[in-house]
Amino acid sequence: MRRQLLDAGRYPRRDPPDGWRNRLIHGDLAAVLPALRREFKNKINVIYVDPPFDTGDVFSCKAMVGSGGDKTRAEGAAYEDRWGAEGGYLAWLRGMLEGLVELLHPRGSLFVHLDWRASHHARLLLDELLTPRAFRAEIIWRYRRWPTRTSNLQRMHDTILYYASGPDAAPVFHTLYEPLAPSTLRTFGTRKQRADFSSGERRSGMLAVESPGVPLSDVWDISIVAPSGKERVGYPTQKPEALLERILRVASDEGDLVLDCCCGSGTTLAVAERLGRRWVGCDVGGPAVQTTLRRLLSMPGLRPMSVQRVGEGGGGARGRLRAQLRAEGLEVEVKLLDYEGPGGKRGLGWLGAWAIDGLGGERFEADGWFGRPFRRAPLPGRAVLTFRRAGVYQVVLRAIDLLGNEAQWEGEIEVPGFRPGRAVMR
Which of 45, 66, 333, 389 is placed for a possible disulfide with 256 were both Cys, Cβ 3.0 to 4.6 Å? Predict the structure, then answer.
């Protein structure tokens, strides 16, 4: 049972061979972007951002909490898309884009995802920051959804502005292909066509090689994530993996560095992880961070990552966590006992993820992360640390609940072992 429990959502701390750790950052962009600039100026290969659209709405996330027959549906604010005084949104949008432009690699690409409310504003700002010659494409993401009652045309597309790092830049670009049209298949089959002018007129000819398809255009017909779809993680503005996979395959190579500074449900990071790209993700909202974290922890073979907090902005209230430590030889059992969140929310069923730092210290470094799977499986509430040296150790636990509220617990334990070494996750 112990082995199964440790393997469920286990994320061990280990030293990556190249020294790189992917990062999930919790914080407001006003603090996060300057911190990123100090380390990543002109180093990000692909930046994708799906910021608020200036809708005037408050978006909420939903989750099933509790265990056994004592389950309830919880709902909390994911983020607020309200900007107060006139011009507040545009000032924020300009500040964000200015910060992102500084991070872009000379051969990098920037994708800004908006809709009819703000795409035209962003286009003007990016033309100013990067020059109109850096513009590469206006991608139309067309999708289908239930129609709304309106006296206007149904709005069923978003706009993704695609820019290079400057007017003379040569960004990484890979041509993707779409399937041939049914009429083309009926007439020519799957062989590649060419124009034949040998008769003095243009006629269609065929080559003895297979056609890869039609080069990808700037109108992408990709379905939204269905309410009951396997991708669905409960975040209100979740984007489909097929959309982000297309962007990353077009504009990056394996090992390139990808940034999403409004990561929301974590789609960009999950796709980057699956495609072998390095990634940095940021969000101001606690619900976004816990959703992304749980999503990543559910992926097999997750590469080393760290979860950081930058600045004081964002996040929910603080909860209280109770735990127990028990030493036996060189092993220390860590067991969660209870959690009490803001507003009287109580029980371990409210937790979305938790982590252990078996060495303590000023900076939290996780020996193991445990995440609650999205398909209603229980959150592992017990783990074992194996130490290689006798001594008294401080063990720190950090948890985040399903609505983004955080809690921390610290305890001290005497380990009566005698072998030299350090704490590791077993």
Answer: 45
% of the chain with per-residue pLDDT over 90: 55
| Residues contacting 217, CB < 8 A, separation 6+ | 178
For residues 358 and 387, the answer to whether their CB atoms sit within 8 Å is yes
pLDDT in tens, 346-392: 889 889 999 988 666 556 777 678 998 886 678 889 988 888 788 88
pLDDT in tens, 329-349: 888 899 999 999 887 778 898
375 alpha-carbon distance from chain centroid: 19
Q: Name the residue among 201, 204, 401 with its Cα closest to residue 319.
A: 401
User: CATH code for 320-420?
Assistant: 2.60.40.10
* Location of structure tokens 């914080």: 27
Structure tokens at 308: 């950081």
Edge-first strand listing for the sheet containing 320-328:
320-328, 331-340, 382-386, 424-425
CATH class of 29-174+216-283: alpha beta
Kindly report, residue by residue over 129-161, the tens digit of the pLDDT: 999 999 999 999 999 888 889 999 999 999 999
Residue 282 makes CB contacts below 8 A (sequence gap 6+) with 24, 25, 26, 27, 29, 32, 36, 259, 260, 261, 262, 263, 310
Sequence spans of domains, the chain: 29-174+216-283, 177-214, 320-420
Q: Which residues touch 275 (CB under 8 Å, ≥6 apart)?
A: 245, 248, 249, 254
Q: In what order do the strands lie in the sheet with 391-401?
A: 368-371, 351-357, 391-401, 406-415
Averaged pLDDT for residues 288-300: 93
Q: Which two tokens stand for residue 36?
A: 């990123």
